[in-house]
Design a protein that fits this description.
By secondary structure, the protein is mostly beta strands. The protein has four helices and 30 strands. Strands 1, 2, 3, 4, 5, 6, 7, 8 and 9 form a nine-stranded antiparallel beta sheet that branches. It has a six-stranded antiparallel barrel with strand order 12-20-23-22-21-24. Strands 10-27-26-25 form a four-stranded antiparallel beta sheet, with helices on one face. Strand 3 and strand 4 form a beta hairpin.
């Protein structure tokens, strides 16, 4: 993204715009030009905008081939080119939000060259003042790009929301695949203390049980007395390996699992192993993207799988995660391996495409306009902005599709 670089001659441009009087012919010519739209103007030999005042005319172009955008202006008298040195020219651009860019011009070849970069977006109200042969000429016109106006009621109905751009914490991310599993503490095998015969069972597959609840009674082979076998934890019976009349042994009679005690297991490749640490934040997402949450790394196992050479990272999930995540589900995770506070960032979901740029839509009152961004670090939530947007700018975070559709409909294209 280019910055506005104004030459020292901008002071002269301001004086030319503010201090020169207008000829009667110039005043008459200014009115119809002020009402001209981007699609309704005369083009000159260089495909620029023609501005006429009697026998004198200028052609305004923005030149962008191989250089940052700059004004090239051609002067004519009675339809024939005149030397650029015979004309003093100044242009003033009033942008949405109140910023004003001023340009002074110097002769170069057969045209007048503006002394600065015309930064994106090329959307502004334009004032042009030219002096030639002792006569002063002035014009005004609107040249809008990527701009539209939507009423507050329509924006609200369309789900348009906005907030102000400012500082944020942006992390460097590493993405990995994994799965949801019950934690070791969330699963328990129920076994008989003494060998014997099962004489009574109350638990069934899928039953919810409480810690201490009696699930079996066993007649001991040694004492012939019956004793109770109780659930070691609260949870759901996920395996049943016993029936009345069976004899107990070393096998688990029931397996109980607590589905609220979950973690995500992620497979760490060797190239990333040194960057994953306990306590790092991870954005965990279902493969569909419908369920997501942030959670910390609780453990990194020190051993690697022999076949894949991957290590295992465990990410702790809160009990509420069980409403959306189930054991065995495949998940994706973005590990925040480095975090930095940046002075300016926008919500990543707010960024849209406009021509060849990534943009957000700035909001001033009920008017919306593109802001072409120079982007730094990016996460699923935040994107660092290096240029193209002023801190504190109100921008659209939700419903940007409505703004883009209205701009497309209005035909506010890149046209000079």
């Amino acid at each position: 993204m280019t910055r506005l670089l104004l030459s020292a001659g901008s002071v002269l441009a301001f004086a030319l715009l503010a201090g020169c009087g207008e000829s009667p012919a110039s005043k008459e010519a200014a009115e119809p030009n002020a009402a001209a739209t981007a699609a309704d103007y005369e083009r000159g030999p260089h495909r620029g905008r023609m501005l006429r005042d009697g026998e004198f005319a200028v052609e305004i172009t923005i030149f962008e081939e191989g250089v940052d955008p700059e004004f090239h202006v051609y002067a004519y008298r009675n339809g024939k080119p005149i030397a650029p040195g015979e004309v003093q020219l100044a242009i003033e651009l009033s942008r949405l939000g109140g910023n004003i860019d001023r340009f002074a011009f110097t002769p170069q070849g057969d045209y007048l060259r503006g002394g600065g970069v015309v930064v994106e977006p090329h959307s502004f109200d334009v004032k042009v003042r030219a002096v030639e042969g002792g006569r002063t000429h002035s014009w005004t016109y609107a040249s809008y790009e990527g701009r539209t106006t939507i009423s507050a009621q329509a924006a609200k109905a369309g789900g348009v929301r906005s907030e102000r751009a400012g500082p944020a914490t942006v992390a460097e991310l590493i993405d990995m695949g994994g799965r949801i599993e019950i934690t070791p503490e969330g699963k328990a095998d129920l076994r008989a203390r003494l060998p014997g015969q099962i004489v009574w069972i109350s638990g069934k597959l899928g039953d919810r049980v409480n810690r201490g609840q009696t699930l079996l009674r066993v007649e001991s082979s040694h004492s012939l007395q019956t004793y109770a076998v109780t659930a070691p934890i609260s949870g759901t019976i996920i395996e049943k390996n016993a029936n009345v009349g069976d004899t107990t042994g070393d096998r688990a009679l029931f397996v109980i699992a607590d589905p609220t005690r979950l973690h995500a297991e992620f497979f760490i490749y060797p190239r990333d192993a040194e960057r994953i640490r306990v306590g790092q934040r991870v954005n965990v997402r279902s493969l569909s993207g419908d369920a997501k949450l942030d959670a910390p790394v609780e453990a990194v196992l020190p051993t690697a799988d022999v076949a894949s050479q991957t290590m295992m990272a465990h990410v702790h999930l809160s009990a509420s995660a069980s409403r959306e995540f189930r054991p065995g589900m495949g998940v994706e995770g973005s590990f925040a391996v480095a975090e930095a506070q940046v002075p300016l960032a926008v919500k990543t979901k707010a960024i849209q495409r406009f021509r060849d740029f990534e943009v957000v839509y700035a909001k001033v009152g009920n008017t919306y306009e593109v802001r072409m961004l120079e982007i730094g670090r990016r996460t699923p939530e935040w994107t660092e902005v290096l240029g193209g947007l002023e801190p504190g700018t109100e921008y659209v975070t939700d419903g940007a599709f409505l703004i883009r559709a209205d701009i497309d409909k209005s035909g506010a294209s890149h046209d000079h």
